[in-house]
Amino acid sequence: MSLRKLLAHAATRAPLDRLWGWARRGAVPILMLHRFHPDSDTGPGLRAGLLREALHTLRHRGVSFLALDETLALLQRGQRVPKSVIFTVDDGYKDFFSVALPIFAEFGCPVTVFLTTGFVDGAWQWWDRVTHTFAVTGLDQVTIPFPDGHIAFRRDPPSWAPHPSMLVEQLKSLAEPVRLRALADVETACQVQLPKHPPPAYQSMSWEDIRHAASQGITFGAHTVTHPILSRTDQVQAQQEIINSRDRIHEMLPPPAISRVFCYPNGLPTDFSQREEQILFEAGFSGGLTTTPGYASVGSGSKARGQYRIPRFAFPDSIADLLQITTGVEALKMGLRGKRNR
Ligand SMILES: [Zn+2]
C-alpha cells in the first residue's frame, strides 16, 4: 500500500483521530468552494449530495464549523482552536443561494462568500464569456488572434480541441488591457454577440439573495469588481478593484454581515504581490486569502506571519481526501515533504 493510500485509509478510522491531532497542532483548514449543482443535474461545481455527506461526516467526527473572521482573530491573538474547519465560497454565483445555502443552514455551518461585485451588479464573469461563446457559436473551426501567435480551435463533437478552458488559462497570463482586447477578439472570431447580462447558467446572486443569506448568518467579503488577475493590473486599477468592491458591499449590506478579509482572484503566488498586500493593509483589511494549499495557524493573523497570504485548501473530490485535510493527515504529509504551510 502506498503512503498516500495508507494515510487515506488511516484518516477514515475515527479512533486514529487523536493520533493525527498532534500533526495539526491547532492549525485550521480553510476550505474553498465556487459552484454547486443539485443531485438531479450535472452542472459545474460540487454536487449537493456530496456537500451534505461532507458536512454530516465532519460533524459526526467532532469537527467544529467555525466562522472565518472570528477564528482568524483568535489565531492572531495566539489562541489555538479545536478540531475545526472554515468554509469559504468564491465569486457569488446564484447556485450558492439556490443549492448550497439550505444545506449549510441545515448544519448550522458558517460560510463566508467572496463577491465579485461587478458580477453581482449584472456583468459576466469574464471566463464565462469564453465558455459561453464557444458553446453557442455556429462555427466548427475558429482561429483566435493572440499576442504571441494564433490559436486554432476545432470542434471535436461534442467539445472543442484544444478545450476553451486552456484559452482561459492563457488569458490569465496577459496584461489587463491586452486580456480585455483578446476577450473581445474571441467573440468576434466566433461570430458571437453576447447578451449584456449572463443567462441563468452563469448568473450571480442578486443583492436581495445576498441580504437574505446574510439574515441567515452568512458573511460576505470583497473579491474585486471585475475579477482581474491583480498582478496584471496597474496600481490604480488594483486599488480600485479592491476598494470599490469593498465599498459596494458596505453600501448594500449591514456591517455584521461583512467580512474584513479580502480574497485574491485566482489567488496563486504570482497573482498578487506586496503591492496588493500594502493596499489591503492601508484599507484596514484583517487578512487576505490565497489559493495556496495549507493551514491557517497561530500567527496567521499577524502581518509577520502572512496576514495577507493565508492559505486555503480547494474542497477535495472525495470524503476520504477531505478527512485527510481535517484530521491533520495532510499537515503530516506536508511536514514530511518539508512544505508545512503555516
Ligand atoms: Zn474568484
Topology:
Elements: H1 3-11, H2 17-24, E1 28-33, E2 36-37, E3 46-47, H3 48-60, E4 64-66, H4 68-76, E5 84-91, H5 94-106, E6 111-115, H6 117-120, H7 126-136, E7 141-146, E8 149-156, E9 159-161, H8 164-172, H9 176-189, H10 207-215, E10 219-222, H11 235-252, E11 258-263, H12 274-283, E12 287-289, E13 295-296, E14 313-314, H13 319-327, H14 329-336
Parallel strand pairs: 1-5, 1-14, 2-3, 4-5, 5-6, 6-10, 10-11, 11-12
Antiparallel strand pairs: 1-13, 7-8, 8-9
Describe the protein:
The protein is an alpha/beta fold. The protein is built from 14 helices and 14 strands. The protein has helices spanning 3-11, 17-24, 48-60, 68-76, 94-106, 117-120, 126-136, 164-172, 176-189, 207-215, 235-252, 274-283, 319-327, 329-336, and strands at residues 28-33, 36-37, 46-47, 64-66, 84-91, 111-115, 141-146, 149-156, 159-161, 219-222, 258-263, 287-289, 295-296, 313-314. The strands form 3 sheets. Strands 1, 4, 5, 6, 10, 11, 12, 13 and 14 form a 9-stranded mixed beta sheet that branches. α1 crosses α13 and α7 (126-136) packs antiparallel against α8 (164-172). The longest helix is centred in the last third of the chain and has 18 residues, at 235-252. The two termini are 29 Å apart. Residues 11-15 have low confidence and may be disordered. Zinc ion binds next to β5.
